[in-house]
Write a structure and sequence with these properties.
- It is a single chain.
- By secondary structure, the protein is an alpha+beta fold.
- It folds into 3 domains: about 170 residues, Metalloenzyme, LuxS/M16 peptidase-like (Cytochrome Bc1 Complex, Chain A, domain 1), CATH 3.30.830; about 180 residues, Metalloenzyme, LuxS/M16 peptidase-like (Cytochrome Bc1 Complex, Chain A, domain 1); about 100 residues, Roll (PH-domain like), CATH 2.30.29.30.
- About 35% of the residues lie in helices and about 25% in strands.
- The chain contains 16 helices and 21 strands.
- It has a 6-stranded mixed β-sheet, sandwiched between helices. A 6-stranded mixed β-sheet has the order 9-10-8-11-7-12. Strands 13-17-16-15-14 form a 5-stranded antiparallel β-sheet, sandwiched between helices.
Length: about 500
């Protein structure tokens, strides 16, 4: 008989637990993650996690913390009383968070940099950012250089808002221990906002990352099955038949109760990027026309069974997902329902799901590889250069930039003929008869780097860095740039 999940309340906190004796894993989950962070606060949940773990020391039980798109989690593994003691300590740390010192914050920022130096210093972008920009779920993939400038007051207010009993849940792989006594501020219900996608037609993104990635918006109820079936078909065609990739990494991210983003990451070597792009897109479109193979559907069934079909075992990820869904107001399906769906689904049903989702296709492709607009068009894709500097090709725009010397502050590059002009609404570069523009109102974050450089990121997550040492009168340029933006979007960034 399949083991069931029990639910109860512990000091006002919804709890999910199992009837299993012995060693256990316990997790305290808060319904706040990277998707809740505005671009100017990117990384704040991770910083709060580190600070709470530091306050809760010493802790000798095996333990840790993690931040996901949807959640902040603290967990421990071991004897029930030891696990309970650790989670009690985390809750106590939440209640005393305001007492943390600036020195502790500085130490944990150093630890965060050591954990992932690239994320700590660099503005990046991923498939979620391409589709949604740097807000909502898109915030999960564009880096966290704003962490360096976060203040104690900002971290304290973040913890006060999100780390409450009203926004918390517990999971245990055994009964709730008698030693468990988690007491959190009561708090108020919180809301989570997600803007609609910024890209609504099949699009090819010129990405800074190597390789090829495919992304779709799909119905949540069959996202896992569709993901596994597509993985099988792509491996069959691109690895086993063509020999141009090694693996297909697949991810699903819940956007809301009804919709998820499905991502498939291919790993060709650079010279096989174009063949992988063509074969990947053609594989998806071929399935839309001819349907999934029975082998692909069977592979998807096996994947679900291997994950959820154990009678005497409930996967930790499944247990935690029940808690997260409850916090975010999503409907959860029990394991038997998921297994029954996997058994019953047909090739025709999966194919219909893909057919209705193919219009949301985004393909990310290494920008260093050559691909013409005609080639992209033959694959049914519009090209998005994904550059913050937008081209202005009309004679009027060219004339405006050229006249910037007289009308607006203008700077000249030290080693090229490029000029930079700043108007009340635009930042413009002019070189070799071509003008490119950044509209100041489109900028979401201005990074004031410790090296003196200025980093700009817009509402779509596109970014650039301006090195003041490359421009004549660079100090004045830096001053004028910082004065051109609202103070609330200017953040201290580390040197990249």
């Amino acid at each position: 008989m399949m083991q069931s999940v029990n639910t109860s309340s512990h000091n006002g906190i919804t709890s999910f637990w199992l009837d299993r004796e012995g060693l256990c894993t316990g997790t305290l989950i808060f319904g706040v993650g990277m998707r809740d962070e505005p671009p100017t606060f990117a990384g704040i949940t991770h910083l709060v996690e580190h600070m709470l773990l530091r306050i809760a020391q010493p802790a000798t039980v095996v333990h840790g913390g993690t931040v996901t798109t949807d959640s902040l989690q603290f967990y421990a593994l071991g004897r029930p009383e030891d696990v309970a003691g650790f989670l009690n300590a985390i809750a106590a740390a939440v209640s005393t968070f305001e007492a943390v010192t600036d020195e502790v914050i500085a130490l944990e920022k150093s630890v965060l940099e050591a954990e992932d130096a690239h994320k700590f210093s660099t503005v990046s972008a991923g498939l979620l950012t391409y589709r949604y920009g740097p807000s909502g779920v898109g915030a999960a993939q564009f880096g966290a250089p704003a962490t360096a400038g976060l203040t104690k007051a900002e971290a304290t207010e973040w913890a006060r808002r999100w780390l409450t009993a009203a926004n918390a849940a517990l999971t245990f792989t055994g009964p709730l221990p008698s030693a468990l006594d988690i007491r959190l501020p009561a708090g108020k219900p919180v809301s989570h906002h997600q803007d609609p996608p910024l890209i609504t037609a099949p699009t090819l993104i010129r990405s800074r990352k190597q390789g090829v990635a495919l992304s779709l918006l799909v119905p949540s109820h069959d996202a896992g099955l569709l993901c596994e079936a597509l993985r099988y078909e792509l491996l069959t065609r691109l690895r086993h038949a063509a020999g141009i990739i090694y693996s297909v990494e697949n991810f699903t991210t819940a956007i809301d109760t009804d919709q998820s983003q499905l991502d498939l990451i291919l790993d060709p070597v650079r010279q096989n990027s174009m063949p992988a792009l063509r074969e990947g897109v053609n594989t998806l479109r071929g399935i839309v026309d001819a349907g999934f193979s029975e082998d692909a559907v069977q592979s998807a069934r096996h994947a679900v069974t291997a994950e959820l079909g154990w009678d005497d075992y409930v996967p930790q990820d499944y247990l935690d997902q029940l808690a997260i869904d409850s916090l975010l107001g999503r409907r959860s399906r029990d394991r038997q329902e998921l297994l029954d769906r996997a058994t019953a689904i047909s090739s025709a049903e999966l194919t219909k799901t893909l057919r209705t989702s193919i219009g949301s296709l985004i393909v990310a492709f290494d920008k260093s590889a050559k691909l013409s607009k005609a080639e992209a068009g033959s694959l049914g894709l519009a090209i998005d250069r994904y550059e913050i500097w937008q081209r202005n090709n009309t004679p009027k725009n060219h004339q405006s930039a050229a006249e910037g010397d007289a009308e607006h502050p203008t700077w000249r590059h030290k080693s090229t003929h490029t000029t930079l002009a700043l108007t009340p609404t635009r930042l413009m570069t002019h070189t070799s008869g071509k003008t490119k523009t950044i509209f100041l109102a489109d900028v979401a974050v201005v990074g004031d780097r410790s090296c003196g450089c200025i980093s700009l990121m817009d509402q779509r997550g596109r970014s650039c860095d301006l090195n003041m040492d490359e421009w004549k009168a660079g100090k004045k340029l830096r001053k004028k740039l910082l004065e051109a933006f609202p103070p609330e979007i200017i953040r201290s960034f580390p040197e990249e």
